[in-house]
Amino acid sequence: MPSPNFPNLPIRITKLSDIWMVRDDLLPFGFGTKWRKVSGIVEYLQKNQIKKVLIWGALHGNYLASFTTILRYFGFQVETISYSKDPKLKTYNERLVNLHSHTIHCYANRKEAEQSFSERTKTFEGLCLQEFGIHPAQSNGLRPFWQQLEKKIHEILNGIKLESKRDERFYHTNKNHANMATLVLEIGSGASFLSAYDYFRDSSIFVLGVMVGEKKATWIPKIESLQKKLGLKIQTISQEMILNFTEKTSPNENISGISNSQRSPFTNNTTRFAKTRSKDIQSIQEFYTSTNIILEPIYSAKSLLQFVEIQNITGTFPSEPKLNNKNENFPNFNQNLPLFYLHQGGHVQHLDLILEVFFK
Ligand SMILES: *Cc1c(COP(=O)(O)O)cnc(C)c1O
């Protein structure tokens, strides 16, 4: 059977009062930008007539769910090694991984899974995908996206320039050939950010990466090796392009976040990373009420809610999110540049967070 064509992955941009949101969350199954990454891998496998893929990662994560589903759909044999701390936990992602793996082994922790993967690579005949699918083919999948996105951003900003010729900021930035927009995206493995950085380096678009999982200090030393594995040019990245997400804790808040966090039955609550605080859940609900856009708690809500505030003017219906003027967390953030935020999806796993909205 010939394999199906890759779906169209259109770029859609929604203007919220102050920011433009690049809507990769609208791509099928909420897989977001993972579609673009895996498209490069699929192309690589087809070109090299490789039929089998060995893949490993967190059972409840977006990476394994999207990659196993898409690879299976395209006719590849998928062998999966996963890990989960809670053997009973059921999630959307976990269902997808189980359904789309031809064989699957699940371990109790990352270390055991990694060992098992490394053992299996010795005899596996096919592509052994490194953690998070880090591979030069991933960059090939992302590059056309940055290219089209750049074009779209220019179209949007040129349109505005024509409309409001007296708008200082657009005049100013263009005259000096300086940056004309900021593109914000989160750093998980960092593959998207590094690929965007590589593409936009000499362009008028300033790429800003937001650390959500690990700390800047531990991620920066990994950059060179990641660039190598992604087949990107090795280059140093100026520190001001990477923002540390700092979780604000108020004095009467438990540092562990346990007392103030809601443990959703649908998220992997055994990891601190995946815990969502009730304040964040409320913001996600308000954001959804005012924009119809679902943020997800691990990536998009963590970073975006630092940039915007939702003004609850009427007390009942939140207004459109506005850029927050006091970004004490982000001292290097240039307020004057138009901001494009890439929503990378992943929200379907967390639909329960907005369920309450319908019963209010
Ligand atoms: C995978 C993922 C990311 C991070 O992408 P990296 O390239 O690994 O940094 C961000 N957001 C969502 C929703 C994701 O699923």
TrEMBL record:
InterPro entries xref list: ACCD_DCysDesulf, TrpB-like_PALP_sf
Which cofactors are named for this entry?
pyridoxal 5'-phosphate
Q: What SUPFAM superfamilies does the record point to? A: Tryptophan synthase beta subunit-like PLP-dependent enzymes
Superkingdom: Bacteria
Sorted alphabetically, the keyword list is: Pyridoxal phosphate
Q: Which family does it belong to?
A: Belongs to the ACC deaminase/D-cysteine desulfhydrase family.
Put simply, this protein is called: 1-aminocyclopropane-1-carboxylate deaminase
